[in-house]
Amino acid sequence: MLFRVVLVVLTVLTVPVAPQVKRSADLAHDSIIHIVIHIQRADYEGDRPALKRLHDELTPIPEDNKLASRMLYWRGFAMWRRAINGFNETPTPTDLETDLTQAIADFKDSIVRDHGFVEPKIGAGSSIGYLMYLHRKDQARVQELFQQSSPLLKEALATDPDNPRLLWVLGPIRWSSPPDRGGGQDKAFELYNRGLQEIRKQKPSSDPLEPSWGEPELLMSLAWSYLNRATPDLKAAQEDAQAALKLVPYWHYVRDILMPQIQAAQLKAR
After folding, report:
1. Is 20 part of a structural domain of the chain?
2. What's the DSSP call for residue 204?
3. What mean pLDDT is predicted for residues 73-77?
4. Per-residue pLDDT reduced to its tens digit, 152-190
């Protein structure tokens, strides 16, 4: 960090003014960044115990509303991704609903602190969607959860329609929705490709607490979609998976689960 030294000149005597002591809020900000960096790595590594531990380390919540909203967002992110990683484990962990419920609570607390902050609305909407999947056999519960998720995603879409993370979250919804409701596999591909274009145009914020993730996730989702669409494109699936791994070489899901699935499909096709 470059500090400018203010000089006060008294005749021929120059006296430098001592640099100000860093505010405690700044120190808290730096501490949060340190934990957030580890959260993102633990997510890609599929380290669910670390995600829970790092979530719990993001305390106490600062008084400053903007800083608090960002801390609460990353608390929610840790539990959201802990649940997503859990869906990829065999056998499926029994604590996914607990993780998602905590994620939703943290995201909603973030919204309370800064209602204009769109990212926790995206995270909460997605987390509620995963709860809907867990309760898919209970239609009354699914409808109840849908009534909570839909307004959050609609508000995010109205506020920031080109948000790459929102487009990533909307992709699976379009994939599984019938064409007469605006869904279909082609619609999901459109969202993922649009999100990829948008994120590649954007310059990440200088503040790591402002979410800028998404390019690896969009590439991963394209790879999965090419593998699983009605007419698979295994070459495209492999290329997008490799592109995701180029950005995040230690991504457990892509490296150890998705890529082997693509390779198995290629062998079967031969």
Report:
1. no
2. P
3. 98
4. 999 999 999 999 999 999 999 999 999 988 899 999 999
Q: What is the largest CA-CA distance in the chain?
A: 87
**CA atoms of 118 and 69, how far apart (whole Å):** 11
Q: Same domain, yes or no, for 122 and 35?
A: yes
Domain containing residue 240: 162-200+215-270
Question: Could you tell me the CATH number of the domain that includes residue 194?
Answer: 1.25.40
Q: Within 10 A of 235 (CB to CB), how many other CB atoms are there?
A: 11
Which residues touch 130 (CB under 8 Å, ≥6 apart)? 83, 84, 87, 96, 100
Element (H, E) at 15: strand 13-16
Tokens of residue 257, six digits: 């689960």
Judge if 68 and 149 occupy the same domain.
yes
**Shared domain check, 196 and 92:** no
- Which distant-in-sequence residues (6+ apart) come within 8 Å of 225 by Cβ? 171, 175, 185, 188, 189, 192
**Could you tell me the two tokens for 189?**
């591909």
- Per-residue pLDDT of 188-238, as tens digits, reads 999 999 999 999 999 888 999 999 999 999 999 999 999 999 999 999 999
Q: How far apart are CA 168 and CA 243, in angstroms?
A: 16
Burial of 60 (0-12, 13-18, 19+ CB in 10 A): exposed
**pLDDT interval class at 25 (50, 70, 90):** low
Query: The pTM is what?
Result: 0.90
pLDDT surpasses 90 at 51: yes
